[in-house]
């Protein structure tokens, strides 16, 4: 609806006195399918988006990210005009690029990006890329769609209602079942098994189930590698192991894996392995081993908390910060 409304506003179907927000902000918990649902909507509507990531919102050159946004916006407008297709500018993980978290330092480029987006919202038909201003240089209005996890970290005037329409995406259980069912329905898994799988890993994000499905091919890939090398890789000769390298680079004699006949018990077993890996990351706390003596916590570094059960020499060593 947001894309349709903006195109109708550009064509005069909506009164010019009506302020139609140019940006749609889709935000919510991590891994809950925001990008997946957005891409699905583009596909159904026949939209050809121009995509940016948060990593492009910073540069060693002051002003470069702002210029890049204007160039990409104009490219989307030109694509719509010349190819006769609906288009839009998509910026993924906007809050990771220009959000303010605790002691995060605000850079000149952060300010320029915010100012650029606000300026485009206020006058979407006139977007300069640094050339001499021409009164006749007008372009088509194209909507901007941004995703993120926490828009409360963004500059308030950017997300006000006149500029950004906000949509909080937090799928309910039925939504999650339908999405995961779309992932697994061609693998012979019954819907009731999908529901049981979701209930077993109720605290996991949607991308967990995508990773779980991808992991079902691991056995076939491992067997193919062992077949090429003549033995499991840890026991094969180095010269035979290089044959795997050669085939991948040359893109020759590569296999075509058949979808695995999935069983609920196997998926649960693999899911428990993935959960165990998550727990190992959370329990490892390797950062503390590398940074012994550093104060962790809100008054130290970045909100990390130290272990409460430290023992040995660490108890005798006075805590210190990186600043002295």
Word description of this protein:
The chain is α/β, with parallel strands linked by helices and about 325 residues long. It contains 12 helices and 7 strands. A 5-stranded parallel β-sheet has the order 2-3-4-1-5. A two-stranded parallel ribbon has the order 6-7. Helix 3 links the parallel strand 2 and strand 3 (about 90). Helix 3 packs parallel to helix 5, helix 6 (about 175-185) packs across helix 7 and helix 6 runs parallel beside helix 8 (about 205-215). The chain is globular. The model is unreliable at about 295-324 (pLDDT under 50).
Structural class by secondary-structure content:
alpha/beta
Mean pLDDT: 82
Compute the number of strand runs: 7
Distance between termini? 55 Å
The unreliable regions are: 296-324
Strand order of the largest sheet: 2-3-4-1-5
What order do the helices and strands follow?
HEHEHEHHEEHHHHHHHEE
Strand content: 5-15%
Helices, by number, come to 12
**C-alpha Rg, in Å?**
25 Å
Shape: globular
Helix content: 40-55%
* Major pleated sheet: 5 strands, parallel
């Amino acid at each position: 609806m947001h894309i349709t409304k903006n195109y109708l506003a550009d064509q005069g179907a909506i009164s010019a006195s009506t302020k139609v927000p140019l940006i749609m902000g889709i935000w919510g918990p991590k891994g809950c399918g925001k990008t997946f649902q957005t891409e699905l909507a583009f596909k159904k509507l026949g939209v050809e988006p121009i995509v940016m990531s948060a990593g492009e919102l910073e540069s060693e050159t002051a002003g470069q990210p702002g210029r890049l946004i204007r160039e990409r916006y104009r490219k989307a407008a030109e694509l719509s005009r010349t190819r006769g297709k609906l288009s839009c500018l998509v910026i993924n993980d906007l809050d990771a690029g220009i959000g303010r978290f605790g002691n995060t330092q605000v850079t000149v480029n952060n300010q320029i990006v915010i100012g650029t987006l606000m300026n485009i919202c206020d006058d979407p038909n006139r977007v300069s890329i640094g050339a001499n201003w021409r009164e006749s240089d007008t372009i088509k209005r194209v909507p901007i769609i941004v995703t993120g996890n926490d828009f409360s970290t963004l500059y308030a005037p950017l997300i006000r209602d006149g500029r950004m329409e906000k949509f909080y995406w937090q799928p309910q259980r039925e939504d999650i079942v339908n999405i995961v069912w779309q992932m697994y329905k061609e693998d012979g898994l019954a819907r009731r098994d999908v529901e049981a799988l979701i209930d077993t890993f109720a605290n996991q994000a949607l991308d967990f189930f995508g990773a779980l499905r991808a992991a079902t091919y691991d056995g076939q890939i491992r067997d193919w590698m062992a077949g090429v090398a003549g033995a499991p890789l840890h026991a094969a000769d180095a010269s035979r192991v290089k044959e795997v390298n050669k085939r991948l680079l040359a893109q020759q004699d590569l296999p075509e894996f058949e979808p695995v006949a999935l069983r609920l018990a196997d998926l649960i077993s693999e899911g428990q392995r993935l959960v165990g890996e998550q727990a190992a990351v959370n329990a490892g706390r390797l950062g503390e081993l590398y940074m012994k003596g550093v104060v962790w916590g809100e008054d130290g570094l970045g909100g990390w908390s130290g272990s409460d059960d430290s023992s040995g020499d660490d108890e005798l060593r006075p805590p210190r910060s990186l600043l002295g």
